[in-house]
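Thread amino acids onto this structure.
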């Protein structure tokens, strides 16, 4: 009896939980689903079905190659490759079919060239040209090289070959498909990374299902060049709708201060309506950073991989507040060779702390104490407004922490008036004298290594600020209502509230809060409202 001749299949079903599907594969499948939901099936020699946990592609017999070529070219579209050359993915368009601005898509394209498309052979670029971002005023020009094509669009032949009767159903992958994937032992086939056809198709759409960012770090510039956020996808239909909602982005959103910043941005965007991760406390996002290493400066390799559980409401609230502050927004700066973006180091420190679950001010002070003189000067000159806003935000500090900072701010106001009176009487430079005094206070706090030396530094600070005695600080003498652990409301003086902050187990936190108080109030602004208070006390 003759063997039945093998035939080419006419369908491919890809499931979220198929063998070998990693978070990146699932995110890529989410990108495929989002793309399919944005394309017109009537234009294809086949059809598709998008369900919660799988995607099924079906094509007409003998037209597999035509089907996949069209799907890859249109699902990963580039607008006018020979003239404009900027990505224009259908999944990134809004419900009306409008794309994001040229500037925003170009920023995302640049980020892709730092994650998936960093190798020169993974993309084809045209000659450099100038894009006018504000045509009416003929301003804000940006030079770039148009994207003519990239690897993900050109895989129809490999897909169809693997599906054919003579195919192996497995496809070898490289770094453009899976950042960090390498052949450990060149020439040894067993060390290559290979995936099934379905998983490979999903990886082709990973640039759509993941989120790439340019990292503008003030702390670790080389090792954090780019960030790739991989969301945990468990509902393809829901993720497809979410990806379209996120399509309305501007260029500044493509620049983040750290991997944690990138992860929290996507977590905040996904949090509404997404409860699948919190139910089992599984990872909500996978974030990796890619940067240069001393042994491989010619390319960017993975420098860090972190996992973020779904943040709680307080963390998301703090992050949204940080994102909304003008002081922490990416600033567009005009340089010699065009513009670039700069981001506050305080935003970087705060987002790192929120992702790690530690107090935000702890990370800010750690960054400050380990910073070089240039970065410290930036803290002193430009970061007071953002830090002051953080302190005023209701959910940023506990009642005890807020009171401690208020005591230090009050002392700074008293110190200002004390120095001003002496300076005017002696005819000296008041601002210079005040800066010298505050530098001494900061130095004494930074030198404090235990609770005893910290108490000495704080008492010296508050006594120096006082005209007669430490108790003159009105905040310390104020009666405050405090709720204890059992829910009972007690009336206590300021002294009674903050004294536990100076105990052995809390002294480091007290030092951090004192330094935050000094950094969050400029010498001039620290006097605001204090003149009237002092006259009332007298």
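Threaded sequence (538 positions):
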């Amino acid at each position: 009896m003759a063997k039945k001749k093998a035939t080419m299949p006419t369908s491919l079903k890809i499931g979220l939980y198929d063998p070998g599907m990693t978070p990146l594969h699932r995110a890529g499948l989410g990108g495929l689903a989002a793309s399919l939901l944005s394309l017109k099936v009537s234009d294809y020699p086949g059809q598709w079905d998008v369900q919660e946990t799988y995607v099924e592609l079906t094509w007409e017999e003998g037209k597999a190659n035509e089907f996949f070529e069209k799907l890859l070219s249109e699902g990963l579209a580039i607008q006018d490759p020979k003239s404009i050359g900027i990505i224009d993915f259908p999944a990134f368009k809004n419900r009306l079919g409008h794309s994001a601005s040229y500037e925003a898509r170009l920023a995302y394209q640049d980020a892709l060239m730092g994650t998936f498309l960093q190798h020169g052979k993974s993309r084809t670029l045209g000659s450099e040209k100038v894009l006018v971002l504000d045509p009416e005023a003929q301003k804000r020009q940006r030079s770039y090289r148009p994207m003519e094509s990239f690897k993900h669009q050109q895989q129809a032949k490999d897909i169809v070959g693997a599906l054919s009767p003579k195919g192996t159903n497995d496809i070898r992958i490289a770094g453009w498909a899976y950042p960090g994937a390498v052949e450990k032992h060149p020439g040894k086939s067993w060390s290559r990374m290979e995936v099934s056809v379905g998983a490979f198709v999903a990886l082709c759409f990973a640039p759509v299902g993941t989120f790439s960012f340019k990292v503008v770090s003030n702390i670790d510039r080389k090792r954090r060049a780019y960030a790739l956020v991989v969301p945990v996808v468990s509902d393809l239909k829901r993720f497809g709708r979410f990806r379209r909602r996120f399509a309305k982005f501007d260029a500044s959103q493509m620049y983040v201060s750290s991997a944690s910043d990138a992860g929290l941005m996507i977590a905040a965007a996904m949090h509404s309506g997404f409860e699948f991760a919190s139910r089992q406390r599984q990872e909500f996002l996978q974030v990796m950073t890619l940067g240069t290493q001393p042994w491989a400066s010619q390319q960017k390799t993975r420098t860090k991989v972190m996992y973020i559980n779904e943040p709680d409401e307080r963390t998301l609230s703090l992050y949204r507040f940080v994102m909304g502050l003008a002081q922490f927004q990416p600033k567009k700066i005009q340089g010699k060779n065009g513009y670039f973006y700069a981001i506050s180091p305080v935003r970087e420190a705060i987002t790192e702390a929120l992702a790690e679950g530690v107090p935000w001010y702890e990370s800010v002070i750690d960054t400050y104490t380990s910073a070089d003189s240039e970065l410290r000067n930036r803290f002193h000159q430009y970061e007071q407004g953002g830090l002051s806003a953080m302190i005023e935000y209701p959910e940023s500090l506990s009642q005890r922490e807020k009171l401690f900072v208020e005591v230090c701010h009050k002392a700074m106001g008293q110190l200002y008036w004390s120095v001003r009176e002496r300076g005017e009487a002696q005819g000296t430079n008041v601002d210079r004298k005040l800066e010298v005094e505050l530098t001494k206070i900061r130095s004494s706090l930074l030198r404090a290594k235990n609770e005893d030396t910290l108490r000495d530094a704080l008492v010296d600070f508050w006594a120096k600020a006082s005209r007669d005695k430490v108790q003159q600080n009105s905040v310390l003498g104020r009666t405050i209502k405090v709720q204890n652990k059992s829910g009972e409301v007690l009336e206590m003086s300021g002294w009674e509230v903050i004294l536990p902050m100076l105990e052995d187990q809390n002294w480091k936190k007290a030092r951090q809060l004192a330094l935050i108080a000094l950094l969050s109030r400029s010498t001039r602004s620290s006097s605001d409202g204090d003149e009237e208070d002092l006259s009332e006390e007298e």
